[in-house]
Specification:
The chain has about 325 residues and is α/β, with parallel strands linked by helices. The protein has two domains: about 1-115 and about 275-295, Rossmann fold (3-Layer(aba) Sandwich); about 115-265 and about 300-320, Dihydrodipicolinate Reductase, domain 2. It is about 40% helix and about 20% strand. The protein has helices at about 10-20, 35-45, 65-75, 90-105, 120-130, 155, 160, 165-175, 195, 265-270, 270-285, 295-315; strands spanning about 1-5, 25-30, 50, 55-60, 80-85, 110, 135-145, 180-185, 200-210, 215-220, 230-235, 240, 320. Strands 12-11-7-10-9-8-13 form a seven-stranded mixed β-sheet.
Length: about 325
C-alpha cells in the first residue's frame, strides 16, 4: 500500500515513523509546508517527498485550519483519509465535510486516539458486558502539565473544543449514550493570556445523558505534576477507572507517593493508542473494516463542546437541541 502523509509537526512525525514501520505500507510519501523538514524526515525513514494524494490512502496531520479543505479534496479524489481532530474549527465546515464524505462514500477516519487505548477499551467492554451493573455516574479528567503557547489559544477554539472534545467523544463511545444537557463553567487562575483570548485555564462541567446518567468533567492547563487523563465509571456493582496506572500523576495522603516518571504529555501517554489507531485506519482503507471514528462522530463531539462553551459564556444549562440543527 502506498500511503501519503501531510504535515510533519510533532504528531505528524510520529505518524510518519509508525507508517514507515508498518508491514502493510510498501511506500510512504510525505509533504510539509517546510520543505527542508519534509526532506529530512523522509531521508531518515527511507520515504519519498511528493504529492500525498497520489496514494492508496492519505494521513492528514496539518494545522486545524487546513483540515476541511484537505478532507474534501480526499473525498473528491476517492482516497481513504485519516485526519487528526478536529474536522474543522466550526460546525458549518464540519457539516460540509460530512456531506462530502457521504456523497463520495470514501472511508474517513477522524483521530480520536482514546478509542484505541487499552484502558478505555477495557472500561467499555466491562460496561457493555454488564460487569459494572447499572451505570450511575461518570467522571472525566483532562489536565495538561503546562499551558500551550499564548499564540495557540486564539486558534484553539477554547478548552472545551480543544481538550474536552476528547472527553466528549470517549464518553459517547464508551457508554453508547448521547448527551442531553450541559452545564459548564471555567476560571482563570494562571496567566492573563487565557482571558485575553476569551478562554479559561480551569474547567468543569456537569452533563446529563439521555438516560439520566450524570457525568462530571474536569480540566486544567496547569497540572504541574504531569499529564493526567482519566475516566471513572461508577455502576451498581463495580467502579472501573481508565488511566489510573502507575504513571498517573497522583499521590495520596495515605502514603502512596507520586510516580517517579509521570506522563509528561499526551503523546507519551497515548503512544500505543496512536499506533493502534493508524493500524485500524489502514485496515479500513483496504476495505477490511469500516471507519472506526466517522465525521458524524466528530460532529457529535463538537456539538457537545459547542454546548459547553455556550453554557460557560452564558452561565446556564444548555440543552443539546439548542446547538444541534
Amino acid at each position: 500500500m502506498r500511503v501519503g502523509l501531510l504535515g510533519l509537526g510533532r504528531i505528524g512525525a510520529f505518524h510518519a515513523a509508525t507508517l514507515a514501520a508498518h508491514p502493510r505500507v510498501d511506500e510512504l510519501v510525505v509533504a510539509d509546508a517546510d520543505g527542508a523538514r519534509a526532506a529530512g524526515i523522509a531521508a531518515g525513514l527511507n520515504a519519498g517527498v511528493g504529492d500525498p494524494f497520489d496514494a492508496d490512502a492519505v494521513v492528514i496531520a496539518t494545522p486545524t485550519a487546513t483540515h476541511a479543505e484537505l478532507l474534501t479534496r480526499a473525498c473528491a479524489q476517492g482516497v481513504p483519509v485519516f485526519c487528526e481532530k478536529p474536522v474543522a474549527p466550526g460546525v458549518e465546515d464540519t457539516v460540509r465535510v460530512l456531506k462530502a464524505a457521504r456523497r463520495s462514500g470514501v472511508v474517513v477516519h477522524i483521530g480520536f486516539q482514546r478509542r484505541f487505548d487499552a484502558g478505555y477499551v477495557a472500561a467499555r467492554d466491562a460496561l457493555r458486558g454488564g460487569e459494572l451493573g447499572t451505570l450511575h455516574r461518570v467522571h472525566l479528567v483532562t489536565a495538561d502539565p503546562a499551558p500551550p503557547a499564548p499564540g495557540y489559544l486564539p486558534l484553539s477554539g477554547g478548552i472545551f473544543r480543544d481538550c474536552h472534545i476528547h472527553d466528549f467523544d470517549i464518553l459517547r463511545w464508551v457508554t453508547g449514550r448521547e448527551v442531553d444537557t450541559v452545564y459548564a463553567t471555567g476560571a482563570n487562575r494562571g496567566e492573563a493570556f487565557f482571558a485575553e483570548a476569551g478562554d479559561v485555564d480551569t474547567s468543569a462541567a456537569l452533563l446529563t445523558l439521555d438516560d439520566g446518567t450524570l457525568v462530571t468533567v474536569q480540566g486544567s492547563r496547569y497540572n504541574g505534576a504531569g499529564y493526567d487523563v482519566r475516566m471513572e465509571l461508577a455502576g451498581t456493582l463495580r467502579t472501573q477507572t481508565a488511566g489510573l496506572g502507575a504513571r498517573a500523576p497522583l499521590s495520596g495522603v495515605e502514603g502512596s507517593g507520586p510516580p517517579d516518571d509521570p506522563w509528561p504529555d499526551f503523546q507519551a501517554r497515548f503512544a500505543a493508542a496512536y499506533i493502534a489507531e493508524i493500524d485500524a485506519f489502514l485496515s479500513a482503507a483496504r476495505g477490511d473494516t469500516g471507519s472506526p471514528c466517522t465525521v458524524q462522530d466528530a460532529l457529535a463531539a463538537l456539538h457537545i463542546a459547542e454546548a459547553a462553551e455556550l453554557s460557560r459564556r452564558e452561565g446556564r444549562p444548555v440543552r443539546m437541541a439548542e446547538v444541534v440543527q
